[in-house]
Amino acid sequence: MGDEGRVREIRTDTYSYVFGTYGEPVATVRPGEIVDIYTEDAFESRVQDVDDLPSQVLTMPFLNPQTGPIVVEGARKGDTLAVEILEIEPTRDFVVSAHIPNFGGLTGTSATALLTPSLPEQVYKYPLRDGHVELPRGIRLPYRPFVGTIATAPELEAIGALTPGPFGGNMDVPDTCPGNIVRLPVNVDGAWFFTGDAHASQGDGELCGVACEMTARVRVRFGVESGATIAWPRIESPTEIMTVGSARPMEDAARIAWVELIRWMQADYGFEELEAYQLLTHAGRMRVGNMVDPQYSLVAKIDKSLLGS
Amino acid sequence: MGDEGRVREIRTDTYSYVFGTYGEPVATVRPGEIVDIYTEDAFESRVQDVDDLPSQVLTMPFLNPQTGPIVVEGARKGDTLAVEILEIEPTRDFVVSAHIPNFGGLTGTSATALLTPSLPEQVYKYPLRDGHVELPRGIRLPYRPFVGTIATAPELEAIGALTPGPFGGNMDVPDTCPGNIVRLPVNVDGAWFFTGDAHASQGDGELCGVACEMTARVRVRFGVESGATIAWPRIESPTEIMTVGSARPMEDAARIAWVELIRWMQADYGFEELEAYQLLTHAGRMRVGNMVDPQYSLVAKIDKSLLGS
Amino acid sequence: MGDEGRVREIRTDTYSYVFGTYGEPVATVRPGEIVDIYTEDAFESRVQDVDDLPSQVLTMPFLNPQTGPIVVEGARKGDTLAVEILEIEPTRDFVVSAHIPNFGGLTGTSATALLTPSLPEQVYKYPLRDGHVELPRGIRLPYRPFVGTIATAPELEAIGALTPGPFGGNMDVPDTCPGNIVRLPVNVDGAWFFTGDAHASQGDGELCGVACEMTARVRVRFGVESGATIAWPRIESPTEIMTVGSARPMEDAARIAWVELIRWMQADYGFEELEAYQLLTHAGRMRVGNMVDPQYSLVAKIDKSLLGS
Amino acid sequence: MGDEGRVREIRTDTYSYVFGTYGEPVATVRPGEIVDIYTEDAFESRVQDVDDLPSQVLTMPFLNPQTGPIVVEGARKGDTLAVEILEIEPTRDFVVSAHIPNFGGLTGTSATALLTPSLPEQVYKYPLRDGHVELPRGIRLPYRPFVGTIATAPELEAIGALTPGPFGGNMDVPDTCPGNIVRLPVNVDGAWFFTGDAHASQGDGELCGVACEMTARVRVRFGVESGATIAWPRIESPTEIMTVGSARPMEDAARIAWVELIRWMQADYGFEELEAYQLLTHAGRMRVGNMVDPQYSLVAKIDKSLLGS
Fold it and tell me: In this model, does residue D60 exceed pLDDT 80?
């Protein structure tokens, strides 16, 4: 990374609130190219202080602004886009979080519609310094950044930026982090890539629907892989292979992720279907990414060291 | 309806496979206007015989072709579009149905992803005559037509034509039938209306994912209602008020429909919230519209005669 | 029914709060015998007035008292118990209903655990006369009685009386009403039958979790059918065959009911599996019985007139 | 552990297939007492080789045999039973696993009833030696034992030994392992404790429904804690506090676990409710224990080091 002067920066003033092909590309990149993508936070920086209530400063459906679309040269429908996440650095020294009325995992929502009163709205602002988010009570959360949202465009649809799906999207899984490669289906020529919603830290499930939200510089390297088509996002770390399923109810998200992981084990590691199923019952790992977005996202994982030799 | 010469016809050769505002309108109508909309079947007439297997003749994601967008003059964001369904007539003398691999209520699907083998693919073609669909064994299903799909456009999204949502869409609820008024939220100026997927008959749940599919002429009268914004589709028959919720799991679809019905009873019939909740526990009715689409659609109903005086 | 002097009465002072074989039978009946079973209401008559708050007068887990176990002579494990419901008459002139904190379809519950405040607790008492339940606003609900709870014992388990399952139980489906035959699996010799929780009227879903609760005299005729084992409750009316599935999420309850209905159509009406599936997609009906109990209960139905000849 | 001669052994020949109070206790223990409990495997040792197909050698509902009930002296209804797991040692040198028809996470099941064919039945037998389970391909799984099933009795119910719930039961969460304290609600005097179903290793979700099943010696120390009543199982490791929720759909299991964890943080660590909710959105961890049993079990966790000072 020493040669930062040669890394192209991608910035925009006009964010995208959907994943689709109906807007204007903000940049075009080549396979192999490393770029620094500057991303807004999920609130488009409208929540700067504890008095900036989301219910007042945000306007539906203009939520979770994405930097994109970014066209990737040479990516053809049916290919796989491989996005290597190299760095995620905050571009400010604080994060914000919030309890938003009728949003989150332990309240009625627009999907789980109830008559019960909503919880109090509340905004939190935490310093981000020395590699930690500093909460009250002396609680320090290690800085473990990732992009909550990373997507290609669906072929025909334009899907709201709060939603995850087969195309990636607002998965809110902490595994889309530096050091990992995120593979996404290419549904249209050029892939039409989006990212945003960087989190400095997040618990499993993103329980109240909001993490440690920050603006960021996200350094990635783009790659295009031809020949094999994937159905759902795949993530590779130095030690694990992982797949992400997004659906409701949560067991369907889990099932999608497991089946996609079995398909990967069959295609690249020589497993029979039942054999992979059997190994996962003993050694599969699963992360609850989000249980708050329009679809829940779960990650199925297996350690590469268990994939045999 | 004697004066059919004065009813404008809306036909198209270029169908829409999403609900959104990114395509070209096929027509513009005025409030109060009656039009005959010609609709394709869900297979775009590519399944004409039992040898036309959907897995071979259909191309994802170009499914469930919609006639639209139709712009409604004077409809403003925040208004309600009231579509009075006057007639639905078949434009051919048969219907088709099918069991499609990994699609339907009693099989693994792309959402409920499993390792089990799929059921056999099979196509059915039934005569439609004398007010009946004629099945084998001498079974005659009364002709009870409705449009499976009826929608306005979301504000920013373009949603695939197989999906129902707050904007209506592919709800597959038999209550969107002649004699009823379907109210939909207007999310953008002009409403951008779509319809298609007429069914000659359908059971609750549309169990295998395919009903008695037909091409049709759909006569509707458009109205625009200002002043009150609705959150989810509302349907009114001569005897009932109804709301449609679309979500997964199915209980969330039910909850949405009930809450919207309570909001309607509060707004237009003078009920307190708890009072409406109490009446519905005793006298509410619920229909399972579909349990096969990307979101399930359930209809909550209450008889007008029980809404007091 | 003219010879009422010869109908045996079954009453008890010691109710059962579980379905199982660990208590003492309150009666033994013979196949073909008609009996009048006296049942308590779901609150064991502790809610007599609007000041009798359930949260104060009820004691968990002593809820939904059942009259039973009633041993049916000659019923063997693997048989089917056929209970013909002949009459349900109230034994008092009012019903009660209630909104109970953290219970019901539109609130957080012990299963859908949330942080949101509960809705207000409120009790309702309605006159029952002249074939109607009389609500405020001049709303009159027709008297359409059924037993909310009707069960055989599981083989080993003792299941709380609020819960429905393969053994029947607290299904809260209005189809267990006079004129219909309810068939239940016999899991142990003697069947060990229970019933209670009569409702004077109920909407689909029993939305707030409480219907028009009453004490009742329930006249039934018991029958034992050997030779075929059923997996889930089956109900037969003069015009329909029906099955009840109980599970969460709601789509699983629906799937169970549909599959059991297909099994019935195969066994007794000569259908092939796919043929039955195909007919149900066009003509199946579905009722949401309850969406409030520990398992949701849905009823799948098909009109006998559509089962061919 | 050097003084093993003084540890009492609890063995039985008559296992319990339900959690309840209707059977005969196999032992009575005192608070503070350390005992060695010998447990059967989930198949009651009937699957010893790859030809022993579960569908042939098992008899419903006599599944998952439990050692118990064990009465704990001095435990009163409303107390909490604290079970410190000290050791789990295999009592044979192999484990078994299996794919069982219509059972598991990626197939239709009795609850998710479908028409699709079942997957092939297959039994696996793996050596257990040198601290590893040895799978084909040279895959070695570290020996990480835990008891899949650990329960107190419900007050009135007798619940099948395959089912988890508020009382613990067949949770299949790897956190009920040596080094941890499992706290369970005491619902009846004496607590009536059960355990069994030891696993040598298990992946998250226990994907196919069967882990590395083994017979075992389980050394525990019993404790009784008065004064505070817990609603769901709580687990404490040297570094984390954890709660287990069991329900369907999976999001309800998650909600239960999170709410119980918040209650714990409020009661013992001085958090306000919203404050705990906020911390968990940033730092909570969640494990998918099982996604195959009658209720799914999820574990919510927070690191003790983040609970402030």
Answer: yes
CA nearest to A263, candidates D113, C169, B98, A255: A255
Instruction: List all residues of chain D from 26 to 65 with a beta carbon under 8 Å from chain A.
Output: none
Task: Give dist(CA D251, CA A249) in Å, integer.
Answer: 7
Question: pLDDT, tens digit, for every residue of C265-302?
Answer: 999 999 999 999 999 999 999 999 999 999 999 999 99
Q: Which residue of D has its CA nearest to B120?
A: D116
Structure tokens that stand for A46 in this block: 């409208």
Residue in B106, B115, B118 nearest the CB of D119: B115
Q: How many domains does chain D have?
A: 1
Q: How many residues does chain D have?
A: 309
Cβ distance C108 to A115 less than 8 Å, yes or no, reads no
Residue A63 lies in a domain: yes
Q: Would you say residue B54 lies in a domain?
A: yes
What residues make up the domain containing C84? Answer: 4-230
Is some CB atom of chain B closer than 8 A to the CB atom of C138? yes
Query: What is the nearest CA distance from B113 to chain D, expressed in angstroms?
Result: 7
Task: Name subunits touching A (3+ CB pairs < 8 A).
Answer: B, C, D
Beta bridge partners of D10: D37
C-alpha span between A46 and D236 (Å, rounded): 40
Task: Kindly calculate the radius of gyration of chain C based on its CA atoms and give it in whole angstroms.
Answer: 19
Using CB atoms, which residue from C116, C119, C249 is nearest to A249?
C249
Of A113, A119, A249, the CB nearest to C116: A119
- Give the minimum alpha-carbon distance from A35 to chain C in angstroms, rounded to a whole number: 43
Are D267 and D257 a contacting pair, CB within 8 Å? no
**Contact call for C211 and B281, based on CB within 8 A:** yes
d(CA A289, CA C293): 29
Q: What confidence tier does D309 reach under pLDDT thresholds 50, 70, 90?
A: low
Q: Are B103 and B209 in contact (CB under 8 A)?
A: yes
Which ranges of chain A have pLDDT less than 50? 1-2, 4
Which residues, 6+ apart, have CB-to-CB distance to A57 below 8 Å?
A: A43, A46, A47
Pair of tokens at residue D242 = 């954890």
- For this complex, say whether ipTM is above 0.90: yes
Q: For position D116, which CATH number holds?
A: 2.60.120.580
D64: left (phi over 0), alpha (psi -120 to 50) or beta: left
With contact defined as 3+ CB pairs under 8 Å, the chains touching D are A, B, C
**Size of the B and C interface in Cβ pairs below 8 Å:** 170
- Establish if C149 belongs to a structural domain: yes
> What is Dmax (Cα atoms) for chain D?
57
Instruction: Give the contacts of B192 (CB within 8 A, at least 6 positions apart).
Output: B19, B20, B21, B25, B68, B69, B70, B71, B152, B153
B295 domain residue, yes or no:
no
Strands C34-39 and C8-10, how do they pair? parallel
Q: Do B116 and D115 touch (CB under 8 A)?
A: no
- In tens, the pLDDT along C108-138 reads 999 999 999 999 999 999 999 999 999 999 9
The answer to whether the beta carbons of residues A41 and A230 sit under 8 Å apart is no
Q: Cβ separation of A279 and D204 shorter than 8 Å?
A: no
What is the Cβ-side half-sphere exposure of residue D222, based on CA atoms within 13 angstroms?
A: 30
Q: Which of C19, C63, C156 to mutate to test the interface with D (most CBs of D within 10 A)?
A: C156
Below-70 pLDDT ranges, chain C: 1-5, 309
For chain D, positions 232-291, list CB contacts with chain B under 8 A: 249
